[in-house]
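Dear U.,

For the methods section draft, I wanted the exact inputs and outputs in one place so we can describe them consistently. I've listed the two proteins in the order they'll appear in the manuscript figures. Please don't edit the token lines directly; just add comments below if something needs changing.

First protein:
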Amino acid sequence: MTAVRALLADGRVALVRRLTPADTEAVRLLHQELPERDTYLRFFTIRPPRLGAFAEHLTAEDARHATLGAYVDGVLTGVATYEVVADPEEAEVALAVDHRQQAHGVGTLLLEHLGSLARARGVRRFVADVLAENAGMLRVFHDFGLPCRVESSGPEIHLVLPLDPDDCYLDTVTDREVRADVASLTRLLRPRSVAVVGAGRAAGTVGHAILQRLIEAGFTGQLAAVNPHAAEIAGIRCYGSLLELPAVPDLVMVAVPAAAVPSVLGDCAARRVPAVVVITSGITGDEKLHGEVLKAVRGGGFRMVGPNCLGVVNTDPRIRLDASFSDRPSRAGDIGVVTQSGGAGIALADQLSAAGLGVSTMVSTGDKYDVSGNDMLRWWECDEATRVAVLYLESFGNPRKFSRLARRLARHKPVVALRTGTSEVARRAAASHTAASATPAVTRDALYRQAGVIAVDTLTELTATVAVLSKQSVPRGLRTMVLTNAGGGGVLAADACAVAGLHLQPPSSTLRAILGHSLPATASLGNPIDTTAAVPAATFARCLRAAMDDVEVDAVVVITVPTALGDPSADIAQAVAKARAGGRETPVVAVDLTQRENLRLLGDTVPSFAEPAVAVSALAHAAHYGQWLRRSPGRVPALPDIDVTAARALVDSFLTEHSDGWLPAPEVTKLLRCFGIPVLDIIPAIDEDDAVAAFRTLGGPVALKAVAQGLLHKSAGGGVALDIADEPSLRVQARLMRDRFGADLLGYLVQPMASPGRELLVGVVGDASFGPLVVFGLGGTDTDVIDKRVTCLVPVTDTDSHDLLQSFPAPKALAGIDVGAVRDTVLRVGRLAELLPEVVEMDLNPLIAYETGCVVADARILLRPVARTDAALRALRA
């Protein structure tokens, strides 16, 4: 493994790496300096072994053992080692941590990384003998997150720790990661002191603007400036360098020329500054500077935002941190924002402010060498000041970790993302139909959908959605009532509801009775409810409260225009407040057809829009998010009849002989059966006589398929003959294929004919970052109808497989078939893709579904060696 930066429980950065002979002396010193009691607990004696030889053994290169070390501020603080003794799937594990660094999570962090390394080498369980009085080590094992077993007790306890991660383990690791990340970001977002390096004396420079904004925002901590050519700037004392500051600042803002950034970061490391924001651009495109800055981050022990960023903001009145150079101060509010684009951050903050909304925290990650969107998802999970999270992400460093973090946060707070890159129309050049579906936008949207992230396409749509989520409750369902005093506006809203998937249903009898008593005979009591333009504002408000009181109404869209009798919009906020006081939380969005602003707040609570379509779209996002909240999170089910060992051996055997390639058809069948996927028998034949022999084995009718060089899509290439009922016909078709393909013909495949049924496609396409994507759609002659496909990232849960088929855009194609059998096949394909990442493309086409059961009639699998990564492992970006 390569060295990685990771966080300890107190937020400090540790460097975790394999130890080598160069670390022998550091290992010896660590063990030598253990207190007597720690020595006894580690070695079961107060007299340790010969530490020189012991350290040499730990750091020696050996396939049967591995040792990891954790360095903090350049000092070795912990060592974890495993050693295989007899059974290659079992290893003895031991830990030693500097007594001054205990209780900070060093041992747990090392054990996580050691377990990941051991799994990659085929070790399936750790064992350890621990003294019963060693409460600290017992707690490390029992709190680790995996089901630790005690197999003997007494003065020495024998522990067995299986290494196969499950959801419980992943949740436990994420819990630790959240706590550590929040601790590490506290100095960044809640600093007690800030130093601006590169603060110019004159206005017009970025450094000067940042210092001025900090002053104007009323930062509650200590401020300092670093400028060797000034004694003070804007009343703030200046120092010649960071090294001259009398106290170490919590946060350093860096706004110096690009060439000077590595030197400043070196000073930050020397002073052990905990948090840095590098505003400077021009680093990432310069290979030398890029390398120097990355090296400084990796060895500096600090968290860093940037480079090439706008800055950071925390509007908490106890902090009042605005360390940015945006065009105006950020308005305080409950919306957390993380953006890769500084320009997008400025535009979004301005739009929110214009609508009466504000931010709790905003971080512009820029080129995100370290702090990323994943860090902010962890921060907001624990930040009571943030109600809604907003993301503008142009790339994902660890999409699988993002999915888990976003899913956790979205269970408590809405997460809204502005989509980028959707306009990309070029599809990946690939031989399989499945890969042709998997554009980056499709994969990203699957990630958002499964994680409960609300994806929008424009800043206007984002601001509107955030306003609804910030100021209104999440709808209980999709049943929407449109109330208007302008019939035309109601029609526009009704059309928008139909497009957005909101349900308009007639008012209940109770609501109709209330409305009939209040409204003139000319009013329309359907849905939309048209009160007519003649009703006064008070009557309109009573109708609104009645709609909110109705248990069959999940949300209300109010469309108004002012008339000579009054402006109904004037009483909307008061009507909603009265309903809230009575315990009704039904969300309400308003539309004022004469409103000049795109969005404003009525009474600081009800979002009011200028366009019905915008209001309805925002409400629909909230309603569909509510649906996601109500669905079961799901689990990856335990599927019977799966032989991972045999499947792994088959894949490894093929890749040992080939660098990559399409798996031969007989091996495809074997691999699918390893995962319990129903597939037709197949018999390979090298020539015509072999094909006849296969026919006699299978009986008729059969399908004959050519195996030819470069022939992947056999039907389209003329390499398939169906319904062959006798031997003479088989010989005729075999000869036709021989004539067609000539020297490229390698042989034949003979299969029994499958009964006619609904032809579907289930496929997989791998992605090095996002992981495998499962694709489901129409198969056979309808394969190329790409808009009739749905996708899902692995791991595929039971809920995911249900949603996949429920959201299928051609539901009539699934009528009359065994949906349960198809769903089971999707789950098994997802499990195959999850456990065998070397399957980079797979087509099951067609998967023929019947009233009872389903079967794969043809399949292709492309194998390629991949670098195995542990997406759950705690590690920082740089």
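Second protein (the one for the lower panel):
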Amino acid sequence: MPDPRSTHQNKASRLRRWFEPTLLVVTTSGSLVGVGAWAVGAPGIADAVWMATTAAAIVPALVWMVLALWQGRTGVDLIAVLSLGGTLAVHEYLAGALIAVMLASGQTLDSAAQRRASHDLHALLEHAPRIAHRRAKGAIENVSADEVRVGDLLLVAPGEVVPVDGRVGSDPALLDESVLTGESAHVERGPGDTVRSGVVNAGTAFELVADARAQESTYAGIVRLAEQASVERAPVVRLADRYATWFLPLTLLLAGSSWLITGSPVGAVAVLVVATPCPLLLAVPVAVVSGMSRASRAGVIIRDGTALENLGRATTAVMDKTGTLTAGHPAVLDVINAPAIEATEVLRLAASLDQASPHVLAEAIVGHARRLQLVLSQPRDASEQPGRGMSGIVEGDRIEVGKLALPESRPRWIDTTLNRAMLDAAAIAWVSREGELVGAVLLRDPVRRDAPRTLRRLREAGLRRLVMLTGDRLEPAREVATVLGLDGVHAEQSPAEKIASVREESRSATTIMVGDGVNDAPALAAATVGIAMGARGSTASSEAADVVLTADRLDPLAEAMSIARRARGIAVQSAAVGMSLSLLAMGIAVAGLLQPAAGALLQEGIDVAVILNALRALRGHDRGERTVPPATQDLLHHFASEQNELRETLHLIRDTADLISGNSRSTNVLAALRRTGEFLDQRLVPHERAEETQLYPALAAALGGAEATATMSRMHAEIDRLSARIRSHLNLAETRRHIGDDQVEDLLATLYGLHTVLLLHFTQEEESYFALAETDQGPLSPEAPRHAR
């Protein structure tokens, strides 16, 4: 059954939407008819029309006064009633008619502003899925979304909203996730992939296996936040209400003083007329709600006005590591092989077996192998031992992947793997065939590509201290903190310790906490402002948070902070300017220099101007960043894709150097140097030169000049120089048919130097340029994994 309170609220809203414009038409028409009658020499008719217009506004003014008192706003609506009654009492009918027009126009303007400001929040509610098509006994039945249970098989038709969280069935799905993420590009989800409620089916019909009920799904949590966001009020609004508590007695005192000074009640009425600030006080919540609406369009749902105000004055940010500053899931960092086997074969064997495992590390290995288009075999007799890993038959051989026992007499490549894992804080998945170790896969949770740039913007938005809070080990936490330039690290924290750390930070500054997991929920609640990565975060963290980021990226937070600061400033500005102008006009009226009719016109202008000023919070503002045009966006996508492919082969340079340091005279070493030369000449150098001639000029135009790309252009020159040096060494070695002893030292320095320069250059481009592309954020990893040696 529908909620009776909701039904009454909807009826009242419809009535208000109809009544207020009608009252505005009536009062405006009455005022103009009176002016016409006065102009043709019929002052008696003019006064009668103006008096009727004034009387028509008194009853609505009384209703608004009662509603204001009911909502906790004291006094100012009483001034409106007194001014209307006062104009009738002293026969200032024109002033009364103008006040009536002022009240009607102010209420109409405010209602329109509130509807516009709340549009994005209400759009979420209207978008909420209500119907689901459930397969049952060979037929499809239409049921309410609330009736869907976990495990139900649903059919999502083209153009429909996904009703619950679930997994794609046998056929892939093409989805529009812009409602949740703000990303305009459609996303394809394959069989078994997770789909969140609220997204729209942009392709053909697909089957969905429900993983949650509608009330527990992603969109339901966002809707609950939106419902609260539309009704909560901020402290800055209550400041306006408190202003009314002293403004009313001051107004009455000044009105009485005017009566005493001028000896006429007309002066007192003039004071009451210019002190009628109903729309003025409504300008403050308009600014707050406008800011919340603006933030929602940027992919940030703010629970209430209090959160908006606190977000706008925060100076410290505490951030969880996993899923917030890092990708939240492991990625393959490197594949290391024994001498008798290729790295691609190690990865293929491990991925073939791990197809039978639901473990998060196994998913990362299988996903990486599939992205490299490796042909995987189906495993047999696969089993998983908790804490050890997978075991099974692949192509007739017993394969094991996971934590395996190391031989007492370890070959060099195993020590290399252990050292690399220690230095990179990576997990190791050892791979064995028929009981013999043949390789290892290193995995690590990479830093998010958008994190460095977002943290810089957060500092620009006013944050002075950035702290990481994580339950992870200290070593990987410190490495991430170093890469991102954080001010502090709290590692190996339990949920209770996280709360203590957040409270400690909150004691010295207004603090925001950003997290996405269930274990972050208590810390989010303890912070001044809790912020949840709601796109894939837990329901617990979203419910505990004051702010939810609907996109799986950090940069909307920096945008939201800028919006919050601006909205708060506009709200305070609106209140201060309106109060000052009203007090100035009241002072003039006390001296008898302002007649009621002129005062009504003046107050009308003040109120409308201040409300229009509050509506500025709806609009965007210049953050100092330039918009990247579509043509440049296309170039960014193209070169980012090329660079990702280059990362996959970048290991050739370092591998060649490793071989040279072992035995420079080997024929395999010269062949490796040949492959490296071909990679440089045919792929890397052409890519860098194309960036220099195509991408960088376009970026310079978008970013404000060639200085924006000058440093990176210098890197291109260094890459070209080192590549030419390697080419010279290769030509000399080809003449000799081997690498000479006199070449080894310089060749090693050049190869290792080029590898380091490329890693730095790629990372800087991804962070500074490719992060500007309107696309899903990938990880900011120090090196792409090796898949061939």
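Candidate sentences for the figure legend, describing the second protein: The chain has five domains: 14-118+230-292+566-618, 131-223, 300-327+447-550, 331-444, 630-780. The CA atoms of residues 153 and 209 lie 5 Å apart.

Thanks,
Y.
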